[in-house]
Amino acid sequence: MSLYHEAAQILDTARKGGGSFKTIVFSKKGWKSDGKTLFALTTETAKWSEILSEVIEKSELLNIEKQNGIALPAKHGLALAITRHKARLQAELTKARLRRGLATIEALRIHVNGRVTKPSHPRWIRVNALRTSLAEQLESTFAGYRRVDDLAAVVNAGSDQRLIYLDQHVPDLVAVPADCVLTMSTAYKEGMLLLQDKASCFPAYLLNPSAAGGDVIDACAAPGNKTTHLAAILASTGERSNDTEIIACEKDPTRSSVLARMIKVAGADRTVLVKQNQDFFRLQPDAKEFKNVRSLLLDPSCSGSGIVGRDEGGVVVHMPNTLEPKENAPSRGKKRKRPAVSVSAKVEPTNDAEAEEATPELEDDKSKLGSRLASLSEFQLRMLRHAMAFTAARRITYSTCSIYAEENEHVVIKALKSEVAVERGWRIMKREEQVDGMRRWHKRGDRDAVAEVLESTDNKDISLDAGQIADACIRCIKGDDDGTMGFFVAGFVRDDLQGSGRSSNNQVIANGHSKRGNGAIEEEEEEWNGFDDDGP
User: Fold this and answer.
1) Which residue of 192, 296, 322, 412 sits 20 to 30 Å from the alpha carbon of 288, by its own alpha carbon?
2) What's the pTM?
3) C-alpha distances in angstroms, 249 versus 210, 225, 458?
């Protein structure tokens, strides 16, 4: 009976916002039940949960058996508890069907399946320039696909349609229908194709490491999609590919191992130096080892509020009320549970390719959201200030998979007004300075959010234009016609490598956070909340 206990655990985790069924099932080892069986059972149960909850409530099964639900020792068969009330449950199922005006069980099944909404996003695939080319993949893996010029055609494609859309903003990026499974293809297994949301491709593409030359640091690299994208960009330009090194940092041991494996599979191991178990904050910005670092990619922990998924579409997990029993209803005890509020939480699964640190917002945690965002934004700001302290750095991209201004525009403005930014001469990367695809991207930053922070900060001597900064920021909106996750990215550039000269390299103070003796800014421990199976 472990299958049903484990399925119940998965459903409860998903209901509370803990990720997609796919992620919960396949990212954890130690299930007693077969993973594929667990996945099938939980997804089907979620689809039927509205009907099941209604039947259980109307039958008062939970009140009859026990106030906390059907509670039998683990060795007993749960089927026995259901069998005892088979007639009652069947009667309520018939009533539920009739209330919906459906003549047969088959009609009810079609009704339930039809309520699962089709995902509003495609499956994005980045062709890995380190191992293949877009032209080669169009002639091989995607030979049977029909090319379309409208992304909506891919999103709305039927299950038997094989369409492909070539992205107009990011090179080597394509979209296929969400139900296209390519993970069994040779190209995927050999690292030629990488599952990566379009928005997740923006940071490396905007950074354009070949423009600044020198080495690159990916500060929070695991699982590695952005890291391998950096390597692919360098390879595609043919510039300094043998001399430029990408330094990939990851402090979590498990994620470090995943990062190392992905780098090897993608063929980036000749370009990428993986620093396993390496905390970015413990790197010394003025160390000789990093004297050639010109670019840094920062994609730190965030709320994960922009993450979407595809494996359950619009499935909602419903749970039954435990209501007061009617006076004539049988009861097995004197204790009665007060009416509970009906629980119905939308499953916001983690995006296949975006294994960011996700802390989904829960309905009962809204009161804590403000403090959580404050903590995250301070961590993100410290990371930006630390990156700005690297001696030879000239370009930085900062990104989150968050929809909140507190983690996005607010952090950007505070970073620009920080002492280290002023000392080193950092400024926003203007829209007209960005690579072509990012310059053409139509969704920009929130001007009101920028203006709000500009007006509230103390550094009135620093002249910043709200409109220009908002236009320099890039946003992606979850679930809109662009087919992306919710995302934010901004670039920073440094024209004057000498800065203003008001302090030496060894005495830069990052907005009140003094450097330790070894030159690294202290980091408070930041929790990691897991990642998806394909990774960023």
Assistant:
1) 412
2) 0.70
3) 20, 13, 34
